Amino acid sequence: MFPPLSEIAVLRRRLGLTQHQLARSAGVSQSLIAKLESGRLDPSFSKAVAIFDALEQAGRRESGKTAAQVMRRKVIFSSPAESLGETARKMRSHGISQLPVLHGGHVSGVVTEADVLNALIAGRKAARVEEVMEPAPPSVSPQTGVQAVSSLLRHCSLVLVADKGKTVGVIARPDLFNAME
């Protein structure tokens, strides 16, 4: 899953690229980049893939960072037996949209705002996290390169960072954007 097309200009500027440089790297025209950034054009899927790949490659060149350098160290967990109301309060108070679910010292799943909202809208106010949680997100070591983490974040919204079996951090898409600054 790609970031919104509106992020192209933001990412390009953060990487210090001109429209021409991005276009050349992606194998598209500079006018295509300009039209995308102005919102006047929706690209084909293959063009969007090429542009985001070029941005990712530029980010890799810019940064040889590791997961440990971009992760958030303060990890807020939910438990399987926790009420959806309590989970929603945690999300609001910490300004986050998803929580890993910790059971027996190991992450057994993840619960997202969408999971909580869908259950509440369906009238399941008494539901517990274990009833709505999704499978556990992937886990990487602290030494894993940002490139590999970026690839994982294309398919999931959260990556855990674990050292010797213990979760020591989390990385979400905004964390990678912030690391590019």
Please sum up the structure shown.
The protein has helices at residues 7-14, 19-26, 30-38, 45-62, 67-70, 84-94, 113-121, 129-132, 146-153, 173-179, and strands at 98-103, 106-112, 139-140, 158-163, 166-172. The chain is α+β, with helices and mostly antiparallel strands and 181 residues long. Helix 9 (146-153) links the parallel strand 3 and strand 4.
Descriptors:
two-stranded antiparallel ribbon, 2 domains, 181 residues, three-stranded mixed β-sheet
How would you describe this structure to a colleague?
This protein is an alpha+beta fold and 181 residues long. It folds into two domains: 56 residues, 434 Repressor (Amino-terminal Domain), CATH 1.10.260; 113 residues, Roll (CBS-domain), CATH 3.10.580.10. It contains ten helices and five strands. The protein has a three-stranded mixed beta sheet. Helix 2 packs across helix 3, helix 2 packs across helix 4 and helix 6 packs across helix 7. The two termini are 22 Å apart.
Report the oligomer: single chain
Q: Major β-sheet, in short? A: 3 strands, mixed
State the separation between the terminal residues, measured CA to CA.
22 Å
CATH architecture field of the largest domain: Roll
Q: Can you identify the CATH superfamily of the largest domain?
A: CBS-domain
Mean pLDDT reading: 88
Q: Can you tell me the CATH topology of the largest domain?
A: CBS-domain
**Helical coverage, percent range:** 40-55%
List SSEs in N-to-C order.
HHHHHHEEHHEHEEH
Count of domain modules: 2
Q: What is the CATH domain class of the largest domain?
A: Alpha Beta
Radius of gyration: 19 Å
Q: Regions with pLDDT < 50 over 5+ consecutive residues? A: none
| Physical arrangement of strands within the biggest beta sheet | 3-4-5
Tally of helical runs: 10
Q: Can you tell me the overall shape?
A: globular
Tell me the strand percentage band.
15-25%
What is the strand tally?
A: 5
Look at the helices and sheets and give the structural class.
Answer: alpha+beta
